[in-house]
Amino acid sequence: MELRVLRYFLAVAEEGNITWAAQLLRISQPTLSRQLKQLEEELGVTLFERGSHTITLTEEGRLLRERAQTIVSLADKTEFELKQSGNDLSGEIAMGCGEVRGMTLLSQRMAAFREQHPNVRFRVTSTTSDIIQEQIEQGLMDFGLLTDPVDVSQYEFLRTGITGHWSAMVPGNHPLAERESLTPQNLKDVPLLFPVRTPVHNLLLNWFGQYADQGGAQRRVSHAGTHP
Prior knowledge:
Blueprint: H1 3-15, H2 18-25, H3 29-43, E1 48-50, E2 55-57, H4 59-83, E3 91-97, H5 102-116, E4 120-126, H6 129-138, E5 143-145, H7 184-187, E6 192-195, H8 198-208, H9 211-214, E7 221-224
Parallel strand pairs: 3-4, 3-5, 6-7
Antiparallel strand pairs: 1-2
Helix pairs in contact: 1-2, 1-4, 2-3
């Protein structure tokens, strides 16, 4: 597989339409269609389900998209770093973080670092702790700003000392909207939407204590997650 063809594949997967992808890539539609067909023949699988106006990925196509994103990202990062020359510190620092209070501290450190090393650029991705850890292990990120609970035993790490607090989001006309703080008893009969991460889920259920079972909290919980 050539990197060029993987970029073609990712463009089509993103656009969902060969004509639009061809315009984005500035190549002809027949050329793009031929490249995709050759890629499918090379791999021995069908990557797309083709409709009259749009195309969607097959299961094999979704797997290739995930792998291709990793391959292309690493190739771009490697090329950028190799092209940097001279004695000045240069390159890209890739980091992941959630939308947490610690980002204020991180942005201040980034600004101070750039003043000393203007040829270094930062790439920041907002996502979950699970995805950050996965991409660090894959070499796609250099470090992450993680929120407890998270297992950092296999990493070099330091704690920022910054703490946050949990909040319950409810409509403005909800009976709980006027409260400044909440207890497990306040929420024991309320349908809940929890983060999908198991450690966070367990932490919140532990906070509910006796009400986790008495109020049927576990049966009333739905899950929300963030995907790459």
